[in-house]
TrEMBL record:
PANTHER family tied to this protein: 50S RIBOSOMAL PROTEIN L4, LARGE RIBOSOMAL SUBUNIT PROTEIN UL4M
Gene from which the chain derives: rplD
UniProt name for this protein: Large ribosomal subunit protein uL4
Species for this entry: Moheibacter lacus
Key word RNA-binding present: yes
Self-association and partners: Part of the 50S ribosomal subunit.
Keyword entries, A-Z: Ribonucleoprotein, Ribosomal protein, RNA-binding, rRNA-binding
Length: 209
C-alpha cells in the first residue's frame, strides 16, 4: 500500500512511500496486544512496597502478661499482629512485576496496532525536517498545519534529532520517539501516529525480521 508524503506545511510533496502489507495490513491479534500492554505497564511498577512482619518489629520480647487467669487470650509478645504496632501477617515484599514475552509476540503486537491504525486512517508520513534551534512555537505550527494541535500525537523519528525532541517536550499531548523506542503502549495511546520518512524503512526492517 502507498501513502502520500506530507511536508511540514501539511501539503503533499508528490512523493509516496510503500507500506509493507505484512506489517501494516495484517488481521490484528487483540490478545497479543493485550499481553504486550500488560507487560509494559507491569515493567513500570517499582515494586518497592514493604511492610514489616513480626520478626522485623523493634519491640521487647518479654511476655507481656501471665499465661492464665486474665480472662483473655494468652499473649507472648508485643510483636504479635493482633496488637497495635505489631507485625503484619503476610505483608507486601519488594518484587519485580515484569514477565517474559517472546520477541515474535512483541513484533506481532506492533504489527497488529500499526495495521489497525492504518485501517482507521490514523497514520501520516512526514518528510524529514529539523529546526535551527529548539523552539516549541515552531513545533506547534507543524501540528496546526497537520491538523493535530488538539489530538494526542506520536512522532516517530528516524534517528536522534535533539532540536525536534526539545521543541516538543513541553507539549502535553505530543510525544516524540526514535524508531528504536517505538512501543505498543505509545501507539495505542496516540490518536495519530506521524512517521518521519526516514523512520519508516527502519521500522519495517525491524518488524519484518
Amino acid at each position: 500500500m502507498e501513502v502520500a508524503v506530507l511536508n511540514i506545511s501539511g501539503k503533499e510533496t508528490g512523493k509516496k512511500v510503500s507500506l509493507d502489507d505484512a506489517i501494516f495490513g495484517i488481521e490484528p491479534s487483540e490478545h497479543t496486544v493485550y499481553l504486550e500492554v500488560k507487560q509494559y505497564l507491569a515493567a513500570q511498577r517499582q515494586g518497592t512496597h514493604k511492610a514489616k512482619e513480626r520478626a522485623e518489629i523493634a519491640k521487647s520480647t518479654r511476655k507481656i502478661k501471665k499465661q492464665k487467669g486474665t480472662g483473655t487470650a494468652r499473649a507472648g509478645s508485643a510483636k504479635s499482629p493482633v496488637f497495635r504496632g505489631g507485625g503484619r501477617v503476610f505483608g507486601p515484599r519488594p518484587r519485580n512485576y515484569d514477565f517474559k514475552l517472546n520477541k515474535a509476540q512483541k513484533k506481532l503486537a506492533k504489527r497488529s496496532v500499526l495495521s489497525q491504525k492504518l485501517k482507521d486512517n490514523e497514520i501520516k508520513v512526514l518528510e524529514d525536517f529539523n529546526f535551527e534551534a529548539p523552539k516549541t512555537k515552531d513545533f506547534i505550527e507543524v501540528l496546526k498545519a497537520l491538523g493535530l494541535e488538539t489530538k494526542k500525537t506520536l512522532f516517530v523519528l528516524g534517528g536522534a534529532n535533539e532540536n525536534v525532541y526539545l521543541s516538543s517536550r513541553n507539549l502535553q499531548k505530543t510525544k516524540v520517539v526514535n524508531n528504536s523506542e517505538l512501543n505498543v503502549y505509545d501507539l495505542i495511546n496516540a490518536s495519530e501516529v506521524v512517521f518521519l520518512e526516514g523512520s519508516l524503512a527502519q521500522v519495517q526492517e525491524n518488524l519484518s525480521k
